Amino acid sequence: MESLIQEMEKFDFSSDEKENIARAFEEMGFDKDDDSPDTDGNGQIDADEIGSFLALVNCKTAQYKIRQMLEESDLNKDGKISVFEFLTMYEKLNKNKYEKEFKKAVTAKAGIKSTQNSTISNEGTQHSYSEEETAAFSHWIYRSLKEDPDCKSKVQDLEGDELFARVNDGILLCKLINKSVPETIDERAINKKGLNIYRKQENLNLVLNSASSIGCSIVNIRAADIGEGKPHLVLGLLWQVIRIGLFSKIDLFRTPELAALLQEGEELEDLMNLSPDELLLRWMNYHLANSKTYQILKNGEKVKNFSGDIKDSIAYACLLEQIQPRDEETNDYALMPPISADTNAADDHARAEKILKQADRLGCREFVTPNDIVKGNSKLNMAFVANLFNTHPALNYDDIDQEIIEETREVKTFRNWMNSLGVSPRVNKFNRDLGDGLVLLQLYGHIQKDVVDWNKVNTPPYKSPGENMKKRENCQYAIKVGKQLGYKIIGIDGNNLYDGDEMATLAVVWQLMRGYTMKILERCSYDGKAATDPEIVNWVNDTLEKGGKDSKVRNFKDSSISTSRVVLDLIDSISPGSIDYAVVTAGESEEDKFSNAKYAVSMARKIGARVYALPEDLVEVKPKMVLTMFACLMGRGLDNVNTKEAAATQQES
């Protein structure tokens, strides 16, 4: 998928086309799913496999024409269609009269609903979405929020397209974000009454900026899109929020028992470097290795994906038998009768229904229907397995002689910031996932367009020998680009990044985050130049004075920032009347300071500032994050001024 995303950047595809292509590739299961056209699992479509793919297009003439174009797209004439050649073919098909047939084939393979279940954008683009995902996410929201006093009525009878109407005031989404990452949003910041258009807009600002802060990619999603209930965007956001919550426990620090999954010759570091979905598969295979039924029926074959390998439900039947709860003292099964790995059924669909009834006994019948299992919906099946893990991990491991260190707050903040910009691959492990330079180079592109010459970048899959050298070259190029932009990268070279030097990597990422933040100010300023640190401080104090506030700040290390009063006053100066001072304290105790900081962060996001700083950063007066807080608020304040001036000019004319 990484190479697909990189190659798509070379084409002028719309965001919706990119989304559908990526989803189709995922569902076709390249390198994963034996039922896909890529039957030999080499990541390419050869001559025989092309026939399988064309069989998806229900038009004899179109098949002939498309076959012709496939041959033309085989640029290196090796009889195989690479990712780039496939996209070239798609681009051509998109421009001719067979576009409709081709898109139907891709859509059918990916399980995407269209026609009557699609929306049309302002540009006339058709956006498709999944009925299965709509149902699965609706049920998860109901289960998660049915006891919440603010959501009880909103989640009743939450079925079908009703989901898109009920999220449009932002309350359900705010609550769901807090379910996934507790305490992200201060409840005092949520508008719950008197929900006019303006107050709904504020809630949706809070939703998107808070989602961004926990690592959701909200590129090309506006508050208005959620308010209008655009299905593909709502579902995309919901999946990210739900996924983050489901994966939060699949981590060695939170679940040390995962050490039981260590294989021969491995150390904890190897396990820590696995992504959550990789850990889920290993957990599943760990239990299947202990299942005699699975070993007999499947000859010990490992599950490699959440699509093709689970379609017959045999792995699920055996997994449920292994993870069912036992009495701690007697080791007897807690459920009577106990769950057995009974795989006898008329067909795959019947077997899927059978295992879901058993999952229901475990309180885990979530996300999938029998159809979703039989079709191999990878997204929903992964969610199903993640929920099983969170509820019944069935792991026991006490022999941990190495301290498991949680990632620092700084690393988490930077990781979430990078993921919010939609980098690929997603950053799960800070040092590991930045070690080939690709993510850093993508970030530069968000700061200054065309600053990276992608012809100079080595992209995966990296071929051996020379894989390590190609990654080092990318890292060296990332340092070079940073210096071209004038960033303070001193005593650091690409080898530091490749070797996973955390301090050096943090220093480089901070320069990128600072550059990104300053770029926001450039877009808002009158002269197109980024403000200096003293200029930001001066703007803060001038705005406070104009807002009739007594508070001031000397610099980003000012100890008075620890109470967050100055931040709250600044927010109220930018958006008069937004702060409820009845809930603001003097900030004399640590508890009061944190309460103010939590409220300040949420209110900053509510008025439209994309803030990544955490309440702890304000309480502890961390200069770097304080800078980003004030800079983001300055950008929001300048936006307000520019909007008012534009409106006044229009009125005069």
Summarize the structure in words.
The structure is a single chain. This protein is mainly alpha-helical and 653 residues long. It is built from 31 helices and four strands. The strands form two sheets. The protein has a two-stranded antiparallel ribbon. Strands 3-4 form a two-stranded antiparallel ribbon. A hairpin with a 5-residue loop joins strand 3 and strand 4. Helix 4 packs across helix 5. The two termini are 51 Å apart.
Question: Summarize this, please?
Answer:
This protein is mainly alpha-helical and 653 residues long. The chain has 31 helices and four strands. The protein has helices spanning 2-8, 15-28, 47-54, 60-73, 83-93, 99-110, 131-145, 152-155, 162-166, 171-180, 197-213, 223-227, 231-247, 268-272, 276-289, 292-298, 314-323, 348-361, 370-375, 378-391, 409-420, 430-433, 438-447, 467-484, 494-498, 502-524, 533-546, 565-574, 590-606, 615-619, 623-652; strands at 45-46, 80-81, 119-120, 126-127.
Features:
globular, mainly alpha, two-stranded antiparallel sheet, two-stranded antiparallel ribbon, 1% strand, 653 residues
